[in-house]
Request: fold
Amino acid sequence: MTSRRKFIQIAPVCGAALIAGRNAFAADPPMVDEKDAQAAALGYVADAAKVDKAKFKNFVAGQNCSNCQLYVSKNANAGTCGLFPGKYVAGKGWCSAYAKKA
Ligand code: SF4
Reply:
């Protein structure tokens, strides 16, 4: 009787600890490097303020990854983009494939 009661008291704590432990080991993927071949081909920059406006005339101030259709926010500063699988792009980033979020 005592051990059953003890188990009922301990089980939720153990479950919470396991979940917390799993999250502690879940590392974010690396950020896209502007020098990666795909990034360079698309003119990706981690800071939209640094877009080469002479080269990318389609850039409009205010555009950045966080308001792009392909962006899925994962934290305050980064998210995923289908063009860069396995990596994060910066929320403040930009590339020439930008498409305004609907
Ligand atoms: Fe950022 Fe959109 Fe380009 Fe992806 S497609 S890198 S979210 S601007």
About this structure: The first strand starts at residue 71 and ends at 73. The chain is about 30% helix and 10% strand. Residues 44, 65, 68, 70-71, 81, 83, 89, 93-95, 97-98 surround iron/sulfur cluster (CB under 6 Å).
